[in-house]
């Protein structure tokens, strides 16, 4: 097992490409893994929200995981998304799942049920006792319907074993800074919001799990590296250059936006699975323009 520090730096929530029939496009997935591994990415998160994991059946999920592990060839650390709102079922899944080749688990806070903070704590307490790899918490209240407070995050970090850190996507900088200020030494605070990555790292965060970096891994990983080296003034031009592209990635929902950009780059088609649909033509045109603009952007060493 790799140290949990391998889960810091620049991570990518990798998409799942689909062909015209709607099946996973394995050759496109292999191209994308190479695109990431060859351009500065530290870790890849497979079967996250961006990977449309909830629309994949068990066989497809296993195929995607095995393909990423094989193509990656140990160049990047690999995390697998494994979360849910049925604690007992998730506990059993972790006990029976084959984690060969996987370095960490990203587990989203329970959604839809809207548990109390005590319920969220107890959920992760159960998972931490069975997870065979370092477990990364994932707070994304915009999708789950329930925020995991800083106090709950810190309690989990202090009282539960095998917790590597948190992917924080609350968008609440005060909450995130509170976690950074009071966390245990080796507990990672990872940005879950592309647009807030620079300020989170400037405040003492440890990395990002990015959507945008599917398309522009070198841009994003360089910006993150600059921030980690306290070269904020060098990171700012890259951050500013990517802002409009980042906004467009979520204008019609994710991963429709990033798949449109990857189509422009010739890596895969833009197909998504229902209930998601492709971005509107006018958004695609704007993404196309920003993609070509970013391709021309010069990254200073």
Relevant terms:
301 residues, alpha/beta, TIM Barrel, eight-stranded parallel barrel, 13% strand
Notes on the structure:
This protein starts with 8 loop residues before the first strand and ends in a 5-residue tail after the last helix. Helix 8 links the parallel strand 7 (188-191) and strand 8. By secondary structure, the chain is of the alpha/beta class. The chain has one domain: Aldolase class I (TIM Barrel). It has an 8-stranded parallel barrel, surrounded by 5 helices. The model has no long low-confidence stretch (mean pLDDT 96). It is built from 12 helices and 8 strands. Helix 6 (150-159) runs parallel beside helix 7. 49% of the residues are buried. The protein is globular, with a radius of gyration of 18 Å.
Helix count equals 12
Going by helix content, strand content and strand pairing, the class is alpha/beta
Which ranges are low-confidence, i.e. pLDDT below 50, for 5 or more consecutive residues?
none
Which whole number gives the mean pLDDT?
Answer: 96
Number of domains: 1
- Secondary structure: helix percent: 40-55%
The name of the CATH superfamily reads Aldolase class I
Largest sheet geometry: 8 strands, parallel, barrel
Number of strand elements:
8
What CATH architecture do you see? Alpha-Beta Barrel
Strand order of the largest sheet: 1-2-3-4-5-6-7-8
CATH fold description: TIM Barrel
Q: Given the C-alpha coordinates, what overall shape results?
A: globular
Radius of gyration: 18 Å
How would you spell out the order of helices and strands? Answer: EHEHEHEHEHHEHEHEHHHH
Portion of residues in beta strands equals 5-15%
CATH class: Alpha Beta
**Distance, first to last CA:** 33 Å
